[in-house]
Amino acid sequence: MLLEIKNLHVSVGGTEIIKGLNLAINAGEVHAIMGPNGSGKSTLAQTLAGRADFTVTGGAIIYKGENLLEMEADERARAGLFLGFQYPVEIPGVSNVYLLKAALNARRKASGQPEIDSVEFMRFVREKAALMELDQKFLARGVNEGFSGGEKKRNEIFQMAVLEPDFAVLDETDSGLDIDALKVVANGVNKQRDGKRSFLLITHYQRLLGYIQPDHVHVLAGGQIVRSGDKSLALELEEHGYDDILATAKA
Amino acid sequence: MASKQTDVKDLVDRKYRHGFITDIDADTVPPGLDESVIRLISGKKREPRFMLDWRLKAFEHWLTMREPNWAKLKLEPIDYQSISYYSAPKRPTDGPKSLDEVDPKLLETYDKLGIPLHERARLAGVAVDAVFDSVSVTTTFKEKLADAGVIFCSFSEAVLEHPELVERYLGTVVPQRDNYFAALNSAVFSDGSFVYVPKGVRCPMELSTYFRINAANTGQFERTLVIADEGSHVSYLEGCTAPQRDENQLHAAVVELIAEKDAEIKYSTVQNWYPGDEEGRGGIYNFVTKRGDCRGDRSKISWTQVEAGSAITWKYPSCVLRGNDSVGEFYSVAVTNNHQQADTGTKMVHIGKNTKSTIISKGISAGRAQNAYRGLVKIFPTADNSRNYTQCDSLLMGNQCGAHTFPYMEIKNPNAIVEHEATTSKISEDQLFYCLQRGLTEEDAVNMIVNGFCKEVFRELPMEFAVEAQNLMNVSLEGAVG
């Protein structure tokens, strides 16, 4: 098992948002978490990534056999956990490639590999940019500086491709994308499915799941997973809306 | 990171790498300042009469002046009678004829500072004048520069070898009476660098002066004069360090630049004087007057400064845009940590027609530091179609520091276009978290964000020094996460 979340409780600013969540993800699996606004989806994503102002008040998260909650955010990243942000920030003056090279080398160093040299690195990122259908000009631009919403999301998927994580959490990567951008993003994720890498897709809408076929779909409501199923659950949601599902779950 | 932000105070831990003292026999005059000290300094340098008279005139005027107090600085009173105004490493004869005669301890000092003076280890493509306390130790690549007609030597040497140039240009940009510290400098200045680039010559290499304060209780008062004759081009860089001491030391320099018709001067500074300790004890008072005169048409002067050291930095490298179509630029990064204070900026004085100036200032404050940008854009009635663009950005780290902006504008010509933009920001938790999530340590993340913030200025530095400046920033902000 790659990740196991047991009875997780998380508070933000004194309010409990996640209230006893359980989830298990095996290597190579794609899980989707769906849920209405305010159900705790983004809180879960940021908690997994180690955001310090989110307080875990109970439960456990085991990642690769280790206690994830004891690791700092940067240690988690170096251990192969990647978060595709819902709102990627701009870092003016720091080029995309500069950040990526530092990030990649931090990861390599942590796993005892030598640092990648600049020539090899540039070849590698160009390859990945082509794969993600990302214009080469984005490489030299400041991180997300002046990017459109869609460009920012594509940049997240591109960064994921370069960093080659073992476990990627994509937090509403599909929101705010037009259909073409959505296809590009989905295509990027699909190309990185290799039977070993695991994904947790957090989404509000079913439409992303038309392009990425998940192995498991979970419905998050009120800080708990109220239903789990296969990809047909997403279609059911699309048809009946959250209200029906939640009503059935409660009954 | 909320939990970490509260620990900024504990995390601030500056490491100053150049704080060592060179144990060397020095010829130091006793503390105190009167006419006899000035005669003594001038005598030691065997200066011609005009130079002594010039100094005495400055001193006479200084006695009538009062220390200015308008800057936003908290400053201990300076006792000008407790400072020694001249200190030079002892040497057997008149001065070393070659490096073999230079005290090995001095060579070792510069090696340790990363400025090797030996021919074999020299920085490629950079000529260095090494100034130690009150005197110049040596100047490298002199012959090669002489072949191109460029004069690059210590100021003392210029007074003896090229008195006509010194007499003609000295004090024509910063007059003796300009201000309190400039007057003091004019009276007691000891050494510094002199550059003359003749008509039409593009200086074949970067010129650089490395200033080192070593002796205790001394002041350093260097004087630099750079003259770019018609159609010439020169790029000059100065670096500065000093030992770690508990008392404050005064550094009051004057730099004058003169660009004749179609000439261009690029002047860069990487200032890393000892900043004082975490409690604000010790450190250099860096009170400097720097001014460039774009005397000829189409001339250009560009200042780039990275101010990382000093307990107090108080200076405004300025441009007088006298020639028509002349251009002035000022690119500055001032970083203050712990109890450091900086009140720095520029003056752009537009006199000629179609003159242009650009000001890019980046202030970074951490710890309990105070950082002020103070700038003047002055457009004379004669300066038709002149333009200025000013951008001042401040970055705050933690919540005990301050950033201040004082932009002054005096516009006397209706055709002028003057723009001013200013921002103040903090390194956001979101930016920090984003970098951490990509696997960077907190320290690396902060350095990356700060370097990104300074990029517009760093890219103006000569390539050899851009990396040094970046590393310097990382050291200066060590531990200052917030």
| Strand elements of chain B, count | 23
Q: What percent strand of chain B? A: 25-35%
CATH topology of chain A: Rossmann fold
User: What is the 3D shape of chain B?
Assistant: globular
Strand arrangement, major sheet of chain A: 6-9-10-3-11-12
Number of strands of chain A: 12
**Outline of chain A:** globular
Helix content of chain B: 10-25%
The main β sheet of chain B shows up as: 11 strands, mixed
| Coarse structural class of chain B | alpha/beta
Weakly predicted, low-confidence segments of chain A: none
User: What name goes with the CATH superfamily of chain A?
Assistant: P-loop containing nucleotide triphosphate hydrolases
Radius of gyration of chain A: 18 Å
Biggest interface between chains: A-B, 34 and 28 residues
Number of domains of chain B: 1
Low-confidence stretches of chain B: 1-14
Q: Helix tally of chain B?
A: 12
Detailed description of the structure:
The complex is a heterodimer of chains A (251) and B (482). Chain A is an alpha/beta fold and 251 residues long. Chain A has a single domain, classed as Rossmann fold, CATH 3.40.50. Helices cover 38% and strands 29% of the residues of chain A. Chain A is built from eight helices and twelve strands. In chain A, the strands form three sheets. Chain A has a six-stranded mixed β-sheet with strand order 6-9-10-3-11-12, with helices on both faces. In chain A, strands 2-1-4-5 form a four-stranded antiparallel β-sheet. Chain A has a two-stranded antiparallel ribbon with strand order 7-8. In chain A, strand 9, helix 7 and strand 10 (198-203) form a beta-alpha-beta unit. Chain A is globular, with a radius of gyration of 18 Å. Chain B has 482 residues and is α/β, with parallel strands linked by helices. In chain B, helix 7 (155-161) crosses helix 8 (163-169) and helix 11 (442-458) packs across helix 12. Chain B is built from twelve helices and 23 strands. In chain B, the strands form three sheets. In chain B, strands 5, 6, 8, 10, 11, 13, 15, 16, 18, 20 and 22 form an eleven-stranded mixed β-sheet that branches. A ten-stranded mixed β-sheet of chain B has the order 4-3-7-9-12-14-17-19-21-23, covered by helices on one side. Chain B has a two-stranded antiparallel sheet with strand order 1-2. Chain B has one domain (2-476). In chain B, a hairpin with a 2-residue loop joins strand 3 (126-132) and strand 4 (135-139). Chain A binds chain B through residues 49-53, 72-74, 76-78, 82-83, 85, 87-89, 91-94, 98-100, 102-104, 106-107, 110, 142-143, 159, 163, and chain B through 1-4, 428-431, 433-442, 444-445, 448-449, 451-456.
